[in-house]
């Protein structure tokens, strides 16, 4: 079964500049813009915003 283009794999990079990333999927129909999530960054030891990179 082929992977859907509707739910592509995206990379979330920390805006704190640590270079830490998360990999996830998103629904392109519901979230067409770049996604921002607040997640834990273990390099700095606290929660920070992670922004979708293309």
Q: Strands of the largest sheet, in order across it?
A: 2-1-4-3
CATH class group: Mainly Beta
> Topology as H/E string?
EEEE
The second-level CATH architecture is Single Sheet
Low-confidence segments, given as residue ranges, are none
CATH superfamily: Ribosomal protein L33
What is the residue-mean pLDDT, rounded to a whole number? 93
Fraction of residues in β-strands = over 45%
Beta strand count = 4
Number of domains: 1
Q: Report how far apart the termini are.
A: 25 Å
Backbone CA Rg? 12 Å
Number of helices: 0
Biggest β-sheet, characterized? Answer: 4 strands, antiparallel
Shape: elongated
Look at the helices and sheets and give the structural class: mainly beta
CATH topology: Rubrerythrin, domain 2
Explain what the structure shows:
- This is Large ribosomal subunit protein bL33.
- The protein is an all-beta fold and 54 residues long.
- The chain has a single domain (9-53), classed as Rubrerythrin, domain 2, CATH 2.20.28.
- 0% of the residues lie in helices and 46% in strands.
- It has no helices and four strands.
- Strand 3 and strand 4 form a beta hairpin.
- The N and C termini lie far apart (25 Å).
- The mean pLDDT is 93.
Offer a quick outline of the entry.
The chain has 54 residues and is an all-beta fold. The chain has no helices and four strands.
């Amino acid at each position: 079964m082929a992977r859907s283009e509707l739910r592509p794999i995206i990379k979330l990079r920390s805006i704190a500049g640590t270079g830490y990333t998360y990999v996830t999927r998103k629904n392109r129909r519901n979230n067409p813009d770049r996604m921002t999530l607040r997640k834990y960054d273990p390099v700095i030891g606290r929660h920070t915003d992670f922004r979708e990179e293309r």
